[in-house]
Each structure stands twice: as structure tokens, then as C-alpha cells.
Amino acid sequence: MSIAPAALRLTGTAVCLLLLAAQTTTASAAPPLPSRAVATTDPVPAADTWSAPLSTRGRYIVDAHGDRFRLKAANWDGAQGSWTGSGSVTDPADHHAGQNSYGIPLGLDRVPLDGLLADFHRLGINTVRLPFSNDMIHSTTPVPDIAVGANRQLRGHTPLQIFDAVVDALSRSGFAVILNNHTHTSRWCCGIDGNERWNSGMSTRQWADDWVFMARRYAAVPRVVGADLYNEVRRDVLDDPNWGLGDDHDWYAAAQLAADRILTEANPRLLIVVEGINWTGVPVDGLPHGRPMLTPVRTLSHTIVDAHKLVYSAHFYGYTGPHHSGATGIGETHDPRYQDLTRDQLATALDDEAFFVEESGRHFTAPVWVSEFGIGAAETNAAARAWFGDITDYFAGHDADFAYWPLVGFEGHDDWALLRYDSAGHRTGILDSGDWRAAAWQHLMTAPSAAGPVPDVATWRMLSTDHGDAVESLRVRETGDWDPGAHKAVCPDGLRLAGLSHTAGRGLCTDGGAPDLRTSGADQTVVVDERHVPAGGDWASGYTKLQCPPGGFLIGYSVRGERLSAALCVPGRVPLSGAGRTVWFDRSDNRPVDAAGGDFAYGDYKGQCAANEYAAGIAFTTRVGSRPGPDALLCRTLP
Asked: Is residue 470 in some structural domain?
């Protein structure tokens, strides 16, 4: 979210480490939750131009008909909290921009709900990112009447019940709604504020439990389409988040856990939005620090139980930079801010930190949603204004999905807001001709964009057994633990195993050339020996061969340490008996010339079947002096 450039936006300066070390907030025990409250107002619905649920095809988000749905969004904040962390919680002066949100979406004290939604439609947006805090979920105290002064039907309601009413109204009015866990405490983000990580002040399990609760709560609301897992994961006083180390600060693993739990326990219809890491290191010249964003995805991407539900996300503000915290004074370094970059340099930074993810035919290919960017209407800095024009031009030219921060604010308080309302409910903002941002906004909203049916494309997904199981098939999960004690990896339903690494325990899945090759039955075979290798069919002489039964193909594998433990095979829905070849990768890479799927095991030898093949066996050796991981694949031609 936006914060005044003069303030420290991100964690990490040496001074702040000392001054703010005691400010970590601990979540309280969860009280019983009230029942849902439904808004009594009924805004006029927009024309039904799209149908939920949403899913992904390559770099695009599509609706239920397979038509492109571009997220033209804005952030309706407030429910994540507005108190700055010092002074009185009841004094508006101690809330961000002097705006006390009372822990609910801003503006309900000034404008009727249906009036707000009508103004949202005038902006041309189709999606609302709706931040919330974990405190909001568990609060049982009704908001004061003044907080909903223009919406008397919401008096006496808790913050969660008011959130319910807002979600319901947005859905009825035709907006897609993406829920965003923004903070734990109802305190303004994003510094050293007790909200740095998903598990600041609570366990990862508690955090995931809250997500399951929220996803279930709105499962019947048709246009609730996404779960944006956590906002701006960043360094706290002492520690950095990481991507894949397997410890308690591993954002990659936490997002994987929450995503799979949401889709399996709560609502399989939702998009899962995973934001990159927003900041690591101490922002002091000479010390390592920076904004990784999505760069770790190149070598370690997510594979969740539905291969068509993953969206990656990043945030960009002009006063921050690839290695600049956004601070002025304490915490400021000599690194350039984004607004200091030339137009071409900015485009390169956006590509390198986020939009490379949209490259087709890679294990990481997914839509990229810039779920926060923005600038103030009162901004006079020429570099900042130029940045806003450059970045909106980039979004327009790249047909990007985006969400402006923020959507609603108070006149005379937050000039960043697209729409500002005075105490009488009168509106000013970007819809007015005097707002300098209007030209760039209109260009972004009206630039040519892909529309209509999106063709099916091959899906590629990575499997990783670095720190545990990666069983992403719901059908296999139903059968239980098929190799106890081993780390197991299985492709999501509809995909098959196409590649393996020699030592790193990585795999590559695809549906290219044969979508959903598996039969509809529940049969599967765990292969631990050579019993299915036919006489005269020694395709890897001197090596142990785990080969699928006739008519079967590989969807998974297991390892114990480096050693291959078992192969998991399932029968095909069509006869599978194509010609076979051995693909060796024990001494070098052996992959198709086009390298479809990308480097799914960076730094390790990899073997991969061609796009017109399926994998039917894995060979390995236990000879002294040899690595016990996979050495070869049996690749056969698809029918």
C-alpha cells in the first residue's frame, strides 16, 4: 500500500532495528465468530459480461467460458486497519492520512454503498482487491454508528459482518472480488509494524486456518474469484523472508501450504494470488538489500493442486526502487528509485522483477498482476509524474493486469485515492478534468487489449521434493501415502511427468500433446522393481529400471535422500504402446531443442521427453561411486 515517501516504508535500517524492536504485535486468541450479515441494499447489477469462476491459460486469466478476463482493478482499503501504531486509536490524527477506517472499507460513513459502487463503475474497473486483517476476522465488537453513518442498515454490525455486506454488494453489482490478507493487526502497513510476514505474531498453521475460514465463508458468493495470500512479505527486525529454504521464514512453502488448503478444504473455484518478496536486507549503503519481487520464481515456481489457478503478483511505486526502500532520511540509500529510471530502464526493471513470469512455455508461466501502484493527485515532482506516465504506458502496452492503490479516500486527506469524498458525500478525484492523472488512467483503461476466447496452451509445472512431499494430484491424495517415509512428488491431475533431474529431486509436468491422458478409473501402480520390464526390453542395461505396466505412464516419483525410491504410474485413457527411446541425463542435460518448460532444476543435469512423448520408466543405479538419483527416462511416442 502507499505511504508518504518521507516515511520509512520498508523494514531494516539499523536505527529502526533498535527503536522498534519492541513493537511486534501478537495476535490474540480467536473469539467465536458471528453469523454472516447480508447487506439490505441492492445496487443495480452491471451487465453480465463475464462469468465466474476464473482460471488461467498461460499468461492470461480467463472466465468460465474461456474468454480473457483482464483484471482492471483498484484496492478498496480500510478493513486491514488504518491506525499508524502511535498515539490514540480513537484519534483520526493518529490514523493514516487522518482517516479512521474503523477496520472496515473506507467511505461507508459518507456515501451509501450503492452510491460507492456506482462510482466504481464510472471508473471502468471490473475487479476490487479487498484487503482485510486477521484482527477483523476475529473481532466481535460492533463498529460505532459513525463508521457507517451513510449506511444505517449496517449499524450494530461487527467489522466482519460489514465486510460480508460489502463483498455481497460488490458481487451483485458485477465486480470480481479478490480477498487480500493485508495485515494481522489492524494497523497501517508496511514498515516494522508486526505485519511483516504471514506468520508475524501467529503460526503459519493459524494463518492458513484463517484463510480456510475466509474462503469457505464466501464460497457461495459467485463473484468472489481470488485469494491474495499476503501483502508485501518483508524483513522484520531481525530476519528476512526467503523463497525455498524450508524454515519458518519460507514464503514459498507457506504460500504453497495455504494455496493447497484453500483449494482442497474451502473453495476450489478461487484463483490463488502469490505476491513476491517485497524486501530483504538492511537498507544501508554497503550492506546487501533489495526487492526480490518475483525473481526467485525463475528457479523455484509453485505447483498447486489445480494447475490453472495460480497468479503471481508484484507492487511498484515510483518512490521505491529495485534496491531502494522508499525511505527519506533514515533508511535512505543512494540506490535509484523507480522514478529515477529512464523509460527503458523502468521497462527492464519491470521485466526482470515480474513480467518475465508471463513468458510462454515455462514451468513458471502464469499471469502477473500488479496489485498495487499509484500516485497522488497533488504530486508536483516531475520525475514522479513521468514515472506514472511511463508505468501506465508499460501496463497498457503489455496488456497487463493491474490494481490501483487506493480506490477510496477522504477529501483533504488522501490525495492518492481515485475517488475522494467529503463529509457530505460529495465526490472529487480522477473522474474530474482537473486531475492530472486522468489522461494516463484513461489511456490505461482504454488501450487495446486481448479479448474473447483464449486458445488452450500447453501447461508446464515444476515438482520439488527439497523439503518434503509435493503430491499435487487430488486423485492420488485420496489413495493415501503410497511410499511411507519417502519424499513424494506427483503432477497435478491432468498433467503427466515429462522430465526429471539427476540429483536435485526436481520434476517437470505437462499436458502438452495429450491433455488429461489418464483413464477415469482410480487405478495406480507403485513401481519399486523391474517386474514390468518385458523380456528383451532392457532399455538401460546394467541399471535398475522402474517401468510402468503396459499401457501406463508416469505421473510421479519418490526419493529417499538422493536415491530414487519408487515410480508412480497410472493407466492411459487410450492405448499407449508407442515406440520408445532412452533419454540419458547422468552426465549432462538431455532435453528437447526447444527446452519447453524451461530450466526446472537449475544447476543440475536434467532429462526430458519430447513434446510428442510420454515417460514410461525411470532408470537409476546403486553402484559404488555413482549417484543414486535418476539417470535415464524411457520416453515413448504419444498415440
From this structure: yes
Q: Find where cell 450503492 sits.
A: 114
SS3 489: strand
Is the pLDDT confidence value at 288 over 50?
Answer: yes
Helix (H, G, I), strand (E, B), or coil: what is residue 442?
A: helix
309 and 413 housed in the same domain: yes
Q: Clarify whether residues 89 and 168 are in a common domain.
A: yes
Q: How far is CA 395 from CA 83, 196, 352, in A?
A: 32, 28, 15
Judge whether 39 lies within some domain: no
CATH number of the domain enclosing 301 = 3.20.20.80
Is 413 in the same domain as 558? no
Arithmetic mean of pLDDT, 176-194: 90
Q: With helix as H, strand as E and coil as C, how does 11-31 read?
A: CCCHHHHHHCHHHCCCCCCCC
Q: Rounded distance, CA 367 to CA 273, Å?
A: 10
Residue 39's pLDDT is 35
Q: Would residue 16 count as lying in a domain?
A: no
Q: Which residue has the higher pLDDT, 40 or 421?
A: 421
Find, among 231, 129, 228, 199, the residue nearest to 170 by Cα. 129
Residues 395 and 524 grouped into a single domain: no
Whether 425 and 560 map to the same domain: the answer is no
- Long-range Cβ pairs for the range 441-447 (8 Å, 24+): 441/392, 441/404, 443/392, 443/393, 443/396, 444/392, 444/395, 444/396, 444/402, 445/72, 445/123, 445/124, 447/396, 447/397, 447/399
Cα–Cα dist 316/311, whole Å? 17
298 pLDDT band, cuts 50/70/90, is very high
> What does the alpha-carbon distance between residue 54 and residue 60 come to, in Å, rounded to a whole number?
10
507 CA to centre of own chain = 22
Do 442 and 478 share a domain, yes or no? no
Domain-embedded: residue 30:
no
Q: How far apart are CA 505 and CA 560, in angstroms?
A: 10
**430 and 475 in a common domain:** no
Give tens-digit pLDDT for 82-118: 998 899 999 999 999 999 999 999 999 999 999 999 9
Distance CA 347, CA 352 (A): 9
Which of 255, 234, 253 is CA-nearest to residue 245? 253
For residue 526, the one-letter residue type is: V
- pTM here is 0.92
User: What is the b/e burial string over 141-152, where b = at least 16 CB atoms within 10 angstroms of the residue's CB?
Assistant: ebbeeebbbbbe
Among 446, 481, 499, residue at a domain's last position: 446
Tens of pLDDT along 353-371? Answer: 999 999 999 999 999 999 9
Burial 421-432 (b: 16+ CB within 10 A, else e): beeeeebbbbee
359 and 260 assigned to the same domain: yes
Gap between the Cα atoms of 226 and 211, Å rounded: 12
Residue-wise pLDDT tens digits, 117-157: 999 999 999 999 999 999 999 999 999 999 999 999 999 99
Last residue of a domain, one of 415, 446, 477: 446
φ/ψ (deg, to 5) at 347: -60, -40
With cut-offs at 50, 70 and 90, classify the pLDDT of residue 265.
very high
Sign of the four-CA dihedral 396, 316, 170, 274: positive
Higher pLDDT, 363 or 579: 363
pLDDT digits (tens, 9 = 90+) for 251-262: 999 999 999 999
Q: What is the pLDDT of residue 147?
A: 97
**What total number of domains does the chain contain?**
2
467: domain range? 460-637
DSSP state, 440?
A: H
